[in-house]
Amino acid sequence: MPVNLALGHVSTDFLIAALVIYSLSVVAFAGDFAFGRPRRAASGATGQQARARAASLASVGAVAAAPAAPPASPAASSPAAPDSMPEIAVSPLRAIRQAGRWVQAAMALSAAGVLAHTAAVVTRGLAVHRAPWGNMYEFVTALTCVAAIFFLFVMIKYRAWTLGLFVMGAVVVALGLAETLIYTAAGQLVPALQSYWLSIHVTAMTLATGIFFVAAVLGVVYLAADRDAKRVAAGRAGSGNGIMRRLPSVEQIDRLTYRTVMFGFPVWTFGVIAGAIWADQAWGRYWGWDPVETWAFITWVLYAAFLHARATAGWRGRRAHYIQLLGFTSLMFNILVVQVFIAGLHSYAGVS
Questions:
Q1: d(CA 204, CA 335)
Q2: Which residues have CB under 8 Å from 202's CB, separation 6+?
Q3: Do 350 and 135 form a contact (C-beta atoms < 8 A)?
Q4: Radius of gyration (Cα) for the chain, nearest Å?
Q5: C-alpha distances in angstroms, 121 versus 31, 131, 146, 265?
Q6: What does the alpha-carbon distance between residue 340 and residue 333 come to, in Å, rounded to a whole number?
């Protein structure tokens, strides 16, 4: 079927709208750090009261939880259960209302951006009559959509909106670069990709990459927060940055990053296996050490090493996160360098 160019333009319009709305949400998240409720409340609270209020938070990331929220159970904060998440007594909508107007605006804008972004991906698929991730531009717009949807769920479930400035900011940067540097008009697939396996293999890789994108941003935030916490623990002056004081604890960020990778790793594994099956049907062999195949396997090994290191007591913390970020670097190298500049059977980036 011919490409519907008009619908392709509608998809681009939706994507630009999503980019603008996401940018406004980042401004709102930044406004919460600068002028939000915790900052105003802190001026009338003693240090002891602030610590007591922080100890009562039953969340992964929200410093703006309800003052009346019951304290987390001892088991939730016990070192014996490092990967357990405390129960959250306050409903998500109530927690957002209690977090202040900046958070309310940021969450509303994030949700609106996700709707516009999803509409852009769906209309692109309708315009080209296939799964809308057949080239580099479509892949990046789809994976950033997955990242935004996934992190919106994380913010609602774990009250992690203090991390929204970083994750949604990274989504804005990635989406902006896609729109300006690698934009590709709606068009037909190259013959090698005209297979139902595109909807299986590439979909899995898109979902996993979007989830790993969120994990990578959380990993960078963890390293910054951990460095600041160690400076304070050593008696040296902290960063003096109000953003660091508003972030979740390093343990919470560590657990959230670990759970994010745990969620994405099986999806990536399935994608690699599905790719091998597709390769057998297309080229008569399951594995041929094509450059993209090789780097996909290297990425799998690095994320497996992170999960193993994170589950081993001696490799918790910074060293484990370095491995996770090395895995994401390998993934990005595969997407941005191998598929674009290295000739191989997977050279379908669509970037001239």
A1: 15
A2: 131, 133, 134, 139, 271
A3: yes
A4: 22
A5: 29, 9, 10, 24
A6: 10
Q: What's the CA gap between 228 and 232, in Å, rounded?
A: 6
Residue 329, amino acid: T
Token readout for 179 is 């729109």
CB atoms within 10 A of CB 180: 8
Report d(CA 152, CA 111) in Å as an integer.
Answer: 7
Name residue 42's amino acid.
Answer: A
Token pair in block for residue 280:
């057998």
Whole-angstrom distance, CA of residue 119 vs CA of residue 204:
20
Report the alpha-carbon distance of residue 18 to residue 147 in Å, rounded. Answer: 13
User: Environment class of residue 46 by beta-carbon count within 10 Å: exposed (0-12), middle (13-18) or buried (19+)?
Assistant: exposed
The predicted-structure confidence for 146-186, as pLDDT tens digits, reads as follows 999 999 999 999 888 999 999 999 999 999 999 998 898 88
The C-alpha atoms of residue 159 and residue 161 are separated, in whole angstroms, by: 6
Amino acid at 339: Q
Q: What digits encode the pLDDT tens for the residues 204-250?
A: 999 999 999 999 999 999 999 998 888 877 776 655 566 788 888 89
Taking CA 33 as the corner, what is the angle to CA 29 and CA 37, rounded to the nearest 5 degrees? 100
For residue 220, give the nearest of 150, 329, 325, 307 by alpha carbon. Answer: 325
Q: Tell me which amino acid residue 221 is.
A: V
Query: If DSSP states are collapsed to H, E and C, what string results for 70-99?
Result: CCCCHHHHCCCCCCCCCCCCCCHHHHHHHH
How far is the C-alpha of 247 from the C-alpha of 254, rounded, in Å?
A: 12
- For CA atoms 223, 299, 166, 257, the dihedral sign is negative
